[in-house]
């Protein structure tokens, strides 16, 4: 029987396209694994018990809360964090560009979770109603924006408006 | 790391998982999607010495219709249930409860078996299982078993599962005929646990009388509940003669342990409960009448 305090479990996770192997204690969450072992601190930790959504990542394409997944449970999975959303050359994704253009963020703490959630939401609902957008955003908390800028950003990203180049003064 | 240390096991099959649970006894906890258990680990409300992870147990996943039931593997995610045409056709009550569970990110991980085994009295799936008289299938080294939903939820976060029993699947009876289904709940914020909710199934006969009905309540006791007196009062009556508000009142007339906390007093919850029963009743009757 393994000693619970010493047990290390081998995991292999593909993170943003890079295959990584590690030995982790089973109580390490995927969020802590990404932040502390992979150095991917874009995955933010707010509540750490599944309420705020700041730590949302994609596992095999599905948006999930990384604080509610143990790293050992992601063995064999493909994980995409907010660092994997933009193009390799740094060009913002349509969702990220829409958040910038429509003031979908202020302090930015919750933004990685919103961007990842909205990326998955719009993939599954390419033509959402405003009501569907609100429902799709309900699992992420923002304490700055009052959500109106975020709603506009998602609407714009859904409508493809974010793709239009925009002059910044 | 927020959870307390535990030893981790990832068996490859259901029999192996059940054997591990039997060996490890009360100190072990099975984990499926972890959407209830991991928060409890993080808050150290649960401090198991062993975690038996079911992620490799593929045989626990799947949805199939056979012999008048839809049988769903315990490890099937809520998202998969929400996408299933078989569930939408055969068990509409379960399909309609699904979008009310947490948020889509939660439903991508959370499972049917996890919802039932966790047995939160304010959760949707336990009330649906109870309303539909679902049969809960188990596996232990002693063999397979089934537990009627009516005997499954024994107390606050407590079920009839023995420590060596693995919940493997749930069989939901398919209602046929002129049927209608509705789930209504009230939560202060979408995705929160409901203050009170109701899952209603009705079947009408050719004369528009209620041939049978089921009313499941959640958030209104220490377990999900059936409003059996209200069901009995409505059965056999002409649907149009039944006042939905009376059904709501009858369903909530003799509740014994309505929670009272900072979110709502017991009295408020009871009134909300009567309102959501009435709402669900109206919708279910309308659907059955149009069927």
Report the C-alpha radius of gyration of chain B, rounded.
19 Å
Q: Would you identify the regions of chain A where 5 or more consecutive residues have pLDDT less than 50? A: 162-169
SS element count, helices of chain B: 12
How far from one another are the termini of chain A?
64 Å
Pfam family, one (chain A): Fer2
Domain 2Fe-2S ferredoxin-type (chain A): 9-85
Protein name (chain A): (2Fe-2S)-binding protein
Keywords (chain A): 2Fe-2S, Iron, Iron-sulfur, Metal-binding, Oxidoreductase
Question: Characteristics of this structure?
Answer:
heterodimer; A: 169 residues; alpha+beta; Ubiquitin-like (UB roll); DNA polymerase, domain 1; five-stranded mixed beta sheet; 5 helices; 30% helix; disordered C terminus; B: 291 residues; Uridine Diphospho-n-acetylenolpyruvylglucosamine Reductase, domain 2; Uridine Diphospho-n-acetylenolpyruvylglucosamine Reductase, domain 3; Enolase-like, domain 1; 3 domains; five-stranded antiparallel beta sheet; four-stranded antiparallel beta sheet; 12 helices; 14 strands; globular
Can you characterise this structure?
The complex is a heterodimer of chains A (169) and B (291). Chain A has 169 residues and is of the alpha+beta class. Chain A has two domains: 9-83, Beta-grasp domain (Ubiquitin-like (UB roll)), CATH 3.10.20.30; 94-163, Orthogonal Bundle (DNA polymerase, domain 1). Helices cover 30% and strands 15% of the residues of chain A. Chain A has helices at residues 30-37, 94-101, 111-124, 130-137, 148-159; strands at residues 9-15, 18-24, 56-59, 62-65, 78-80. In chain A, strand 3 (56-59) and strand 4 form a beta hairpin. In chain A, helix 2 (94-101) packs across helix 5. The longest helix of chain A is centred in the C-terminal third of the chain and has 14 residues, at 111-124. Chain A is elongated and about 50 Å long. The termini of chain A are far apart. The relative contact order of chain A is 0.15. The model of chain A is unreliable at 162-169 (pLDDT under 50). The relative contact order of chain B is 0.12. In chain B, strand 8 (153-155) and strand 9 form a beta hairpin. Helices cover 34% and strands 25% of the residues of chain B. Chain B is globular and about 60 Å long. In chain B, the strands form four sheets. A five-stranded antiparallel beta sheet of chain B has the order 4-5-10-6-7. A four-stranded antiparallel beta sheet of chain B has the order 11-12-13-14. Chain B has a three-stranded parallel beta sheet with strand order 1-3-2, covered by helices on one side. In chain B, helix 11 packs across helix 12 (266-290). The chains are: A alpha+beta (169), B alpha+beta (291). The interface between A and B is medium-sized, with 36 and 34 residues.
């Amino acid at each position: 029987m393994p000693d619970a305090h010493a047990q290390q479990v081998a995991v292999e996770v593909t993170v943003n396209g890079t295959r990584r192997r590690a030995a982790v204690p089973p109580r390490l969450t995927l969020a802590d694994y990404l932040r502390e072992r992979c150095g991917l601190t874009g995955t933010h930790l707010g509540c750490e018990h599944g309420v705020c959504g700041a730590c949302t990542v994609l596992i095999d394409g599905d948006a999930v809360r990384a604080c509610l997944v143990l790293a050992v449970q992601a063995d064999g999975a493909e994980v995409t964090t907010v660092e994997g959303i933009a193009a390799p050359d740094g060009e913002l994704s349509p969702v990220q560009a829409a958040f910038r253009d429509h003031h979908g963020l202020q302090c930015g703490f919750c933004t990685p979770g919103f961007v990842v959630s909205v990326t998955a939401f719009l993939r599954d609902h390419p033509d959402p109603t405003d009501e569907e957008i609100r429902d799709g955003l309900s699992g992420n908390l923002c304490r700055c924006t009052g959500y109106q800028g975020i709603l506009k950003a998602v609407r714009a990203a859904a409508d493809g408006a974010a793709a239009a180049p925009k002059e910044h003064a | 790391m927020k959870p307390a240390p535990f030893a981790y096991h990832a068996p490859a099959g259901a029999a192996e998982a059940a054997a591990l649970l039997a060996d490890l006894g009360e100190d072990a906890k099975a984990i499926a999607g972890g959407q209830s258990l991991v928060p409890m680990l993080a808050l150290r409300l649960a401090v198991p010495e062993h975690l038996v992870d079911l992620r490799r147990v593929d045989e626990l996943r799947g949805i199939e219709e056979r012999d008048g039931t839809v049988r769903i593997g315990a490890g099937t995610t809520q998202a998969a249930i929400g996408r299933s045409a078989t569930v939408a056709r055969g068990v509409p009550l379960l399909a309609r409860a699904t979008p009310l569970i947490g948020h889509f990110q939660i439903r991508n991980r959370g499972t049917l078996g996890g919802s039932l085994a966790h047995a939160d009295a304010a959760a949707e799936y336990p009330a649906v299982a109870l309303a539909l008289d679902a049969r809960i299938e188990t596996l232990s080294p002693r063999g397979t078993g089934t537990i009627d939903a009516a005997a499954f939820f024994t107390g606050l976060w407590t079920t009839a599962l023995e420590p060596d029993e693995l919940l493997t699947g749930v069989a939901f009876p398919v209602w046929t005929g002129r049927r209608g289904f509705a789930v209504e709940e009230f939560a202060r914020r979408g995705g929160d646990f409901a203050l009170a909710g109701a899952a209603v199934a009705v079947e009408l006969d050719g004369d528009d009388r209620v041939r049978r009905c089921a009313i499941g309540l959640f958030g209104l006791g220490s377990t999900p509940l059936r409003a059996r007196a209200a069901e009995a009062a409505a059965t056999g009556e002409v649907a149009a003669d039944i006042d939905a508000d009376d059904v709501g009142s009858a369903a909530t007339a003799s509740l014994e342990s309505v929670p009272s906390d900072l979110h709502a007093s017991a009295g408020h919850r009871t009134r909300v409960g009567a309102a959501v029963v009435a709402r669900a009743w109206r919708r279910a009757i309308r659907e059955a009448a149009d069927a």
